[in-house]
Structures are given as structure tokens and as C-alpha cells.
Design a protein that fits this description.
The chain has 378 residues and is of the alpha/beta class. It has helices spanning 2-37, 76-81, 106-114, 172-178, 196-205, 233-238, 258-264, 276-281, 298-309, 312-316, 335-347, 360-363; strands spanning 53-57, 82-85, 96-100, 122-126, 144-147, 154-155, 160-163, 181-186, 210-213, 241-245, 270-273, 290-291, 325-328.
Length: 378
């Protein structure tokens, strides 16, 4: 009897010991696994965040340093997990390096070639179309592209629109009553590849009322001089116009700049564009703008504009989209940096997939543009 009791105690103790060992081993494995993942879970264990993604901007953007403020409109999650800096000391610890195409020089190129880091992506950021991007021959230097094109590694558009969860309240009468002028064209660059100047001047000859402003015509609005006007003066100046010319300096794949987004957005005008295909390919609602190439000739286009100008019901059809969609405030294209942070966070503590552009010029080439459009109307 006594022997049986001792045997039972021994078996019970052995069972408890085995269970304890399994629990400790399992717990230890879980801790080690979570350490490898950079995260701790459980009771009194300290929560440890994955280190922030560090994006080093090796060049400025048109001489203006690119800093953390570029993330100001990103989600809080992204802002808390990412840092953007132009501090040269971050080069050895950076998770990515960004170069703006118009600000790269031979000195920088030589340094970063000589001191190449193969564990992180070198990123070419180009917001201009191929005619103005300023690219020279970069062979086997860049790993990722960050441009306005949807097929970029990082899509970096000038603007975007999102569908509203709840239909917005739109005061159509207020919009109509604020419109006292027909069409505005504010333009600075006269060196366009697509003959936009000639097309606009032809429209005027056909009877379209267009007010011309900007460096090209050496005329600035007195109440809102370029870069010197009071805050909000641009909205006040543009808002009375029913339409605004939004011709880009080249007709290129996916190339839609702030010329379009601001006019449709904060200015509440109807943008006039050259060709519908570029905008439709981006999924922009057809009713947000008017395209010249919807008409067989300029006479019919001008007739349509004149008809819509004097007809409230017809004009307001171009504002119906405001109930369903809203334009995202892009703040000069920071959408791309939000997406870059998100993508890099997914690669944190992993090897970034290896990829290199053998010849970047062949990717960002003028073959993605068609500047012959206007000639059929001239």
C-alpha cells in the first residue's frame, strides 16, 4: 500500500515536471519568435516597437530640403513609424535614399556610386514629364521609381480623389451665383511641347472668352501677385470663373498636375483639358472636366462652352460629382511619401527585393507622350 502511494506521488511529480518543462520551453520559443519579429506580447512583457523607417533625401526638391514635414498629411500610424530627413549623417542607417531628378549633380552621383549601399533601394523621384525631368544617363543606379505614373514603384501623384462615405452637402446655388466670369488661363511656361498656347489663342479667335494671366503674358492679378499675395488670394481670384484652362505642358501618360486638381478642387471651377483619355485612364469622373477632343472641331467646342456658360442646369452637371467624391489636398505631392513609408515598413527587418533599372531614360521616355494632339485643330 505504501509502495503504491510513493509510486503515485512520483508519477504525479514527473507529470507536473514534464508539463512545466513544456510550458517553459513553449513560452521561451514564443519569446524568441517575437524577438525576431521585433515585437513582444503578453502579461508583464514590455511592448517593443519596430524601429522607425528612415528615409534619407539626398537631394532637395528644387533647392528646398525635403524634411519630415512632407508627412504632415499622412495617417498618424505612418507619421509615427517613419522619418524623412536630409541630414547626411543618416546615410549609413537609412532604409531608403531618395533623389529628385532635377537636383542630382555629378558630384552627388559619383559619391553615392562609390559608396553604394546594396541593402537599400535608391529611388528616383521625378514629378516632371520626360521633356522636363532633367534625367541624364543613369545606368544601373536606381532601384525604384517614384513618379506621377501609375506604373511607378511608388505612385507619387500631384493629386487624388476619394469616394465619400456619406454624400456631401453641396450648395449648388452658391456655386452658380459665385460664377461671374467665363474662362481663365493662368500660365507661366511658354516653352510647351504640345502647342497649348497656339490652341488657346485659336479658341479666342473662335469666340471663346478667356482671360490670360501669368508670366507668359506678363500679367499678374494685382490682388494676388505670384508668390507674394496674401493667404487664400488665389482661391478668391479663381473662384468667379466658371471654367479654367488646365492644359499641361505636354500630353503624357498619367501626367495630371496641380493645374487640374486645384481648379476642380479648392477653386471650384470646371477644368478644360486637351484629351479625355489621360484623365479617364486615371479613373477621374468624366463629369469633372470638359475635354476638347470630345468635339470634332473648335467651333463646336466653343459653342458648347458658350451654351453651358449661360445655362445653370447644364453648368451644374459638371459639379454633381462633388456629392460623391472629394479631392485630397495634396500639398505639392506628399501622397507619394506616405506610400513610400508604408511600403518600406513592410520590408523592415527583411531584405528589400533586388531590382535595378538598367536604363532609366528608356523607362521615363518621351515615347509615353503624344504632343501632336493640338495640331489637328490648328
Amino acid at each position: 500500500m505504501k509502495h503504491n502511494t510513493l509510486r503515485a506521488v512520483f508519477q504525479f511529480s514527473f507529470f507536473i515536471g514534464i508539463c512545466t518543462f513544456i510550458m517553459i520551453a513553449g513560452y521561451s520559443y514564443q519569446i524568441n519568435y517575437n524577438q525576431r519579429m521585433g515585437i513582444f506580447y503578453g502579461g508583464n512583457i514590455t511592448f517593443k516597437k519596430v524601429p522607425k523607417v528612415v528615409i534619407y533625401t539626398a537631394t532637395p526638391f528644387f533647392d528646398v530640403p525635403i524634411e519630415n514635414s512632407i508627412l504632415r498629411d499622412c495617417s498618424e500610424k505612418i507619421k509615427n513609424s517613419c522619418t524623412v530627413t536630409s541630414n547626411n549623417k543618416t546615410f549609413p542607417i537609412a532604409d531608403a535614399i531618395v533623389f529628385h531628378s532635377r537636383d542630382i549633380n555629378e558630384t552627388k552621383l559619383s559619391f553615392f556610386n562609390k559608396n553604394r549601399r546594396y541593402d537599400i533601394p535608391y529611388i528616383m523621384m521625378a514629378m516632371e514629364n520626360p521633356f522636363f525631368a532633367g534625367l541624364t544617363v543613369y545606368h544601373n543606379f536606381f532601384n525604384w521609381t517614384m513618379t506621377y505614373r501609375t506604373d511607378s514603384d511608388i505612385f507619387h501623384p500631384y493629386g487624388a480623389f476619394v469616394k465619400s462615405y456619406v454624400p456631401a452637402e453641396v450648395n449648388y446655388s452658391e456655386i452658380w451665383n459665385s460664377k461671374t466670369k467665363e474662362t481663365l488661363w493662368m500660365v507661366s511656361n511658354g516653352n510647351a511641347q504640345n502647342k497649348r498656347k497656339e490652341l488657346v489663342e485659336k479658341l479666342i479667335k473662335k469666340g471663346m472668352s478667356i482671360d490670360l494671366y501669368g508670366q507668359l503674358y506678363k500679367k499678374e492679378p494685382a490682388e494676388c501677385p505670384r508668390r507674394r499675395g496674401p493667404p487664400g488670394c488665389d482661391v478668391k481670384f479663381h473662384s468667379p470663373y466658371k471654367f479654367a484652362i488646365a492644359f499641361e505642358n505636354s500630353n503624357c501618360k498619367d501626367y495630371v498636375t496641380e493645374k487640374f486638381w486645384k481648379k476642380a478642387g479648392i477653386y471650384k471651377t470646371v477644368p478644360i483639358v486637351m484629351s479625355r483619355k489621360i484623365y479617364r485612364d486615371l479613373g477621374i469622373p468624366d463629369s469633372m472636366y470638359i475635354a476638347v477632343d470630345d468635339y470634332p472641331n473648335l467651333e463646336e467646342f466653343v459653342h458648347h462652352i458658350q451654351n453651358v456658360t449661360s445655362n445653370e442646369e447644364e453648368y451644374m452637371k459638371y459639379h454633381k460629382w462633388r456629392k460623391q467624391f472629394k479631392i485630397v489636398d495634396t500639398n505639392e505631392g506628399n501622397i507619394g511619401f506616405c506610400q513610400l513609408c508604408q511600403k518600406l515598413a513592410g520590408y523592415k527587418r527583411k531584405l528589400v527585393p533586388h531590382k535595378v533599372y538598367e536604363n532609366l531614360n528608356s523607362w521615363h521616355s518621351t515615347s509615353t507622350c503624344d504632343n501632336s494632339f493640338a495640331t489637328r485643330f490648328l
